[in-house]
Amino acid sequence: MRALFDAHCHLDPENGDVAVSSTKICKTEPVAVCGRLLCAVEPDEFPRVEAAASEWPRTWLAFGVHPWYSATAVAAGGWRETVETALHRHPGAWVGEIGLDGLKLDRSPMDDQETVFRAHLRLAKDFNRPVNLHCVKAWEPLVAALDSRYLADGARPFIMHSFAGPYQFVEALAERGAYFTVGQLAARQDSRKGRERAALFPEDRLLLESDSFLVPGSDDVHELSHALNWLADVRGTNAESLAAILCDNAARLFPS
Q: Three-state DSSP class for 77?
């Protein structure tokens, strides 16, 4: 049985406008999910995420304000203190899902996104916590913020969630300590660019993600298995060998 780590998933929201992906639990897949990084996206979600984590063994939490919600957080105020308090409560928690999104400027202006993102990076550095990053069409300001706020003392580990940026940023981010997740977006689109990009990721920095919105205690085995098989095909290897590599990579970031 393959043991896979889900390096980016969410809690199924009770309400709100987050797009809920269809969670497929496939009992026949020869896959065991050995852990997950459960990412919050806004402060109101933090208590539910914390409570849900108790129903999942080997669940790491990530607390942050998603770039889509940056303007709302800035207007409301108090978000930074809420993130900081959550990090104090959970010494093993990550900071995330955070980042920049150049396609959502009508929802969150870039000034608000950068303000919130840079503050998160300062918290992550002060607390010595890794970060889980979202980025769409904002690669240069993202790298600039990382260099000035999070990586000023040198490379350190962080996750690039579902990386779909320009090829030249793969090496630049890897040099800074990035791990790259591959999941349902790339596997189901199965585009030429997606395949070329996934082939560039360093073998020792590969991770799988479902990016699914899950009911507490469940896992999206179907999406993880599909992504594994797709990635093995892209990289010209077999799924069993690749699963072992991915397990080792996850163990470095999420030790028992």
A: coil
β-strands 178-182, 59-63: how paired? unpaired
The tokens for 201 are: 């990721």
- Taking every pair of C-alpha atoms in the chain, what is the biggest distance, in angstroms? 49
Backbone angles phi, psi at 188, to 5 degrees: -80, -30
Cis peptide before 97 (omega within 30 of 0): yes
d(CA 70, CA 42): 9
For residue range 160-185, what is the model confidence (pLDDT) as tens digits?
Answer: 999 999 999 999 999 999 999 999 99
Position 218, amino acid: S
41-55, pLDDT tens digit by residue?
999 999 999 999 988
- Residues 141 and 167: their CA atoms lie apart, in Å, by 16
Residue the block writes with tokens 């580990």: 157
CA gap 178, 160 in Å, rounded = 6
pLDDT of residue 29: 56
Kind of pairing, strands 94-101 and 59-63? Answer: parallel
Concatenating the DSSP letter of every residue in 168-237 gives: HHHHHHHHTTEEEEE-HHHHHH--HHHHHHHHHS-GGGEEE----EE-TT---HHHHHHHHHHHHHHTTS
Distance CA 134, CA 116 (A): 13
User: Strand (E) positions, 64-150?
Assistant: 94-101, 131-136
Give the pLDDT score at 42: 96
What's the pTM? 0.93
**How deeply is 13 buried, as exposed, middle or buried, from its count of CB atoms within 10 A (0-12, 13-18, 19+)?**
middle
